[in-house]
């Protein structure tokens, strides 16, 4: 079962923290117009392929009262502190908000550097410009507001793995472990030695000079990102208060925490300490700083609704910790008036280091393709150049028939059930959801975030079978577990948020990432 034997390092960078921007409302008047115009300019620049390369620095420059200067008529950049910046959701948050022109304080575990900070490990999806027609983007801005338009054409996979899916009930990981040759996707702590990071001289800073991968230009927005070491598991530490004093963020996006259901049975106190008390430490540090800012706390569907009491019979200690985390976040609004709200995303999918079912299927498909290529026995693989066969890429173009050797097929991928259904939401759509809440969400309440479409697990597996260049053996178990109820995301949609990325595109992008060995 998934999660059995999973270590505590399978986390979304515990010890990271993040904040949302703005106050209880988004930019108004001239500032809002300037924000939309700057977003439009960024979209046009990226779609025309004119991102400049070279070595992009990673630093924040303080001005009066912590304000920043921005090229443009608004004269100011927003600053976002992101916890869990080395994890699945955190890496997408860094990318999304930096591309939108925000300064990012990316918080990671002490002694670690996220995969995206190393040019040798930086995946293509992280630096690629999105293919979007600027005219269409402007139309979207006029229709639903700039927040949704910034990444309107992101067409690809809340916190950590897939919030809301207990993978241990879906897949027998031991049956596929032999076919997965990549290391644990969520353990990014060993990606780069943190000692390689350079200090730009700011007190307590740990900025990183983002070098470029040879032969590839890197986007300018990387210069808006800086790394900071932060450990939310340390009670009584002044490091968080000092970080807030020094960086003075406009918002915090809190994505850090332990997020695997299986290991929570063996370490319930660790899960409660980091997910619940780590959040409390963050809230208290913001309160004590005297610097008002909006805080979005990422919850989990497994924790139930944040508007009611914690579940009397939680599914596991992880679910209990997330329910109590959401209660604490909303409690600090009620008790102390903090500008905090809770986002509850459904099962997030897409490229990047997720440990969810979609990523596992993609890794399995990529492993089967590599096995077929090595064996030289892939007669069933169609030509990669055939435009009538979507999902086949140049990554498998060398799969040609050969009688050189018999292919030793990986063991079948096992699903506990083909009929259980989940709501799968692309992680990039979740980012526009977080941005919407930072700009327009109401403090003191929770917002569900979902695609609005329930997908059976067998349907997801079949989708990867269609996209793969070789046959994928899948076995179906006899589980009779009930599917969760459809998720009502009407409150977030009422703010103008619309999910735009279809599941097929999410799966395609996840598979391409696994084929390239990126962020794994």
Concise overview:
32% of the residues lie in helices and 10% in strands. The protein has 520 residues and is an alpha/beta fold.
Structure description:
The protein has about 525 residues and is α/β, with parallel strands linked by helices. The protein has 14 helices and twelve strands. It has helices at about 30-45, 90-100, 125, 135-145, 145-150, 240-245, 260-265, 270-290, 315-335, 355-375, 425-440, 455-465, 490-495, 505-515, and strands at about 80-85, 105-110, 225-230, 250-255, 295-300, 340-345, 345-350, 415, 420-425, 445-450, 455, 475. The strands form three sheets. It has a seven-stranded parallel beta sheet, with helices on both faces. The protein has a three-stranded mixed beta sheet with strand order 7-9-11. A two-stranded parallel ribbon has the order 8-12. α2 (about 90-100) links the parallel β1 and β2. It is globular and about 65 Å long. The relative contact order is 0.17.
Q: Tell me about the largest β-sheet.
A: 7 strands, parallel
Count all strands and give the number. 12
Report the mean per-residue pLDDT as an integer: 73
* Largest sheet, spatial ordering of strands: 3-2-1-4-5-6-10
List SSEs in N-to-C order. Answer: HEHEHHHEHEHHEHEEHEEHEEHEHH
Total DSSP helices: 14
Low-confidence stretches: 1-73, 131-209, 377-381, 384-406
- Helix proportion of residues, in percent? 25-40%
Q: What percent strand?
A: 5-15%
Oligomeric description of these chains: single chain
- Distance from first to last alpha carbon: 20 Å
Which overall shape is indicated by the principal axes computed on the Cα atoms? globular
Radius of gyration: 22 Å
- Name the structural class: alpha/beta
């Amino acid at each position: 079962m998934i999660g059995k034997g999973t270590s505590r390092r399978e986390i979304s960078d515990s010890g990271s923290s993040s904040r949302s921007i703005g106050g209880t409302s988004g930019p108004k008047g001239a500032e809002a117009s300037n924000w939309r115009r700057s977003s439009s300019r960024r979209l046009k620049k990226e779609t025309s392929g004119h991102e400049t390369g070279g070595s992009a620095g990673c630093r924040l420059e303080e001005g009066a009262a912590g304000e920043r200067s921005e090229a443009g008529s608004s004269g100011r950049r927003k600053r976002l502190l992101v916890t869990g910046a080395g994890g699945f959701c955190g890496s997408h948050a860094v990318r999304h908000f930096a591309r939108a022109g925000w300064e990012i304080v990316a918080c990671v575990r002490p002694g670690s550097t996220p995969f995206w900070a190393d040019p040798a490990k930086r995946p293509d999806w992280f630096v690629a410009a999105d293919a979007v027609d600027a005219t269409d983007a402007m139309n979207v801005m006029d229709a639903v507001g700039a927040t949704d338009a910034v990444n309107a054409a992101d067409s690809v996979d809340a916190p950590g793995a897939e919030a809301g899916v207990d993978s241990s009930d879906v897949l027998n990981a031991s049956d596929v472990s032999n076919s997965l040759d990549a290391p644990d996707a969520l353990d990014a702590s060993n990606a780069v030695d943190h000692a390689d990071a350079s200090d730009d001289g700011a007190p307590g800073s740990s900025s990183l000079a983002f070098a470029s991968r040879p032969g590839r230009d890197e986007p300018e927005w990387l210069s808006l990102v800086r790394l900071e070491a932060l450990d939310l598991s340390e009670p009584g530490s002044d490091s968080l208060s000092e970080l807030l004093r020094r960086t003075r963020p406009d918002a915090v996006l809190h994505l850090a925490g332990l997020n695997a259901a299986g290991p929570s049975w063996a370490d319930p106190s660790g899960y409660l300490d980091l997910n619940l008390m780590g959040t409390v430490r963050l809230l208290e540090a913001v309160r004590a700083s005297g610097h008002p800012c909006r805080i979005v706390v990422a919850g989990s569907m497994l924790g139930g609704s944040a508007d009611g009491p914690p579940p009397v019979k939680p599914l596991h200690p992880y679910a209990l910790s997330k329910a109590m985390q959401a209660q604490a976040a909303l409690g600090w609004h009620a008790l102390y008036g903090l500008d905090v709200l809770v986002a509850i995303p459904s099962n997030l999918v897409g490229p990047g280091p997720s440990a969810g079912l979609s990523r596992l299927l993609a890794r399995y498909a990529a492993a089967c393709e590599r096995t077929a290529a090595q064996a030289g026995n892939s007669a069933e693989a169609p030509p990669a150049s055939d435009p009538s066969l979507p999902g086949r890429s140049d990554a498998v173009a060398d799969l040609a028939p050969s009688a050189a050797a018999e292919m030793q097929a990986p063991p079948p991928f096992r699903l506990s059930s083909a009929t259980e259904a989940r709501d799968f939401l692309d992680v990039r759509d979740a980012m526009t959801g977080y941005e919407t809440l930072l700009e327009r969400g109401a403090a003191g309440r929770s917002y569900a975030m979902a695609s609005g479409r329930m997908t059976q697990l067998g349907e997801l597996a079949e989708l990867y079978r269609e996209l793969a260049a070789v046959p994928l053996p899948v076995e179906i178990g006899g589980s009779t577990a009930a599917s969760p109820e459809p998720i009502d995301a009407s409150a977030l949609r009422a703010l103008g948020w619309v999910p735009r990325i279809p599941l097929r595109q999410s799966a395609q992008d996840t598979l391409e990432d696994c084929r390239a060995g990126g962020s794994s």
